[in-house]
Amino acid sequence: GAVVSQHPSRVICKSGTSVKIECRSLDFQATTMFWYRQFPKKSLMLMATSNEGSKATYEQGVEKDKFLINHASLTLSTLTVTSAHPEDSSFYICSGRAPSGGYTFGSGTRLTVV
Amino acid sequence: GDSVTQMEGPVTLSEEAFLTINCTYTATGYPSLFWYVQYPGEGLQLLLKATKADDKGSNKGFEATYRKETTSFHLEKGSVQVSDSAVYFCALSEGSSNTGKLIFGQGTTLQVKP
Q1: Which positions in chain B touch A106 (Cβ < 8 Å)?
Q2: A87 φ, ψ to 5°?
Q3: Do the chains contact at B103 and A46, CB–CB below 8 Å?
Q4: Could you report how far apart the first and last alpha carbons of chain A are, in Å?
Q5: Is B105 in Cβ contact with A43 (below 8 Å)?
C-alpha cells in the first residue's frame, strides 16, 4: 500500500519553456506532499511542502514563482518549473505522507534543460 | 536547525564483507530516524526506521539502533551482496513540529564487488 506515482520519469525541454511534473497518491489520500531536488552526488534538498487546498510552503532560497506547486486534490500534486534554464536540470522527487505516518516516494523525474 | 551527517563515500566492499555506514544527527525534540536506499535510476525506498531511543530497525539483513546518548543511527549489515550496491540516505523527521519534513544526510554510495 501507500504508492506514489510520479510522471514523467524523464523529460528534456528547451530553455525558456515550462515543464510540469505530476505526483499522484494511488491508494491513499495525501493531504501533504513534499517536493525534493537532488543534485548529482548530493543529498535531497526539500524545496517545498504542498498542502491540499492551500498554498505551498517553500523552503528558504526556493523561488516560488519559478517552481509553482499546485495541490488541487487529495491525490494529486504538481510541480511546474517555469521558464526553465540549464541550471534547473536536476532530479526531482515527490513524497507523500501515508496514513500510517510513513513517507512514500515517487520514482523521480530527471529534468534536462537544453 | 535539525541536521543529519553521514560518512563520506563511496564505500567499496567485497561480497560478504561487513558493512557500517555512520550517521549522526542534531535535533531538538525527539525525531524519528530512517534509512532510505536508492538503487540506480530509481526513487527512494524506506529500508528501516526507528521512532524512539534504543529502538532497533531492521530489514533485509540491515539494522540500525537509535542511540540518543551518541545521537547516532549507524547502518550495519553482516554480509553484503552485490545487489546491495546503491546510495544510502540517513534521515530524520522533525519531532518538534507537525510539518513532517524529512531532513536527509548527504548520502553514501556503496559499491559491492563480487
Answers
A1: 43
A2: -70, -10
A3: yes
A4: 37
A5: yes
What is the separation of C-alpha B56 from the centre of its chain, rounded to a whole number of angstroms? 12
B17 in contact with A at a CB cutoff of 8 Å? no
Enumerate residues 6+ apart whose C-beta is below 8 A from B94: B2, B27, B29, B31, B100, B101, B103
Q: Are A12 and A86 in contact (CB under 8 A)?
A: no
- Closest Cα of chain A to B8: distance in Å? 11
Output the nine-digit C-alpha cell for B59.
530489514
Predicted confidence (pLDDT) per residue in B30-40, tens digit: 899 999 998 88
Residue given cell 501515508 in the structure block: A98
Please provide the average confidence, as pLDDT, over all residues in chain B: 91
Give yes or no for a contact between A15 and B67, defined as CB atoms under 8 angstroms apart: no
Of B44, B100, B107, the CB nearest to A93: B44
Taking alpha carbons only, the member of B17, B24, B3, B111 closest to residue B74 is: B24
Answer yes or no: is pLDDT of A1 > 80: no
CA B26/CA B3 separation, integer angstroms = 5
Residue from A38, A93, A94 whose CB has the most chain B CBs within 10 Å, to mutate: A38
pLDDT digits (tens, 9 = 90+) for B1-55: 888 999 888 999 999 999 999 999 999 888 999 999 988 877 788 999 999 999 9
| pLDDT tens profile B56-81 | 999 999 999 999 999 999 999 999 99
Block residue for cell numbers 529534468: A111
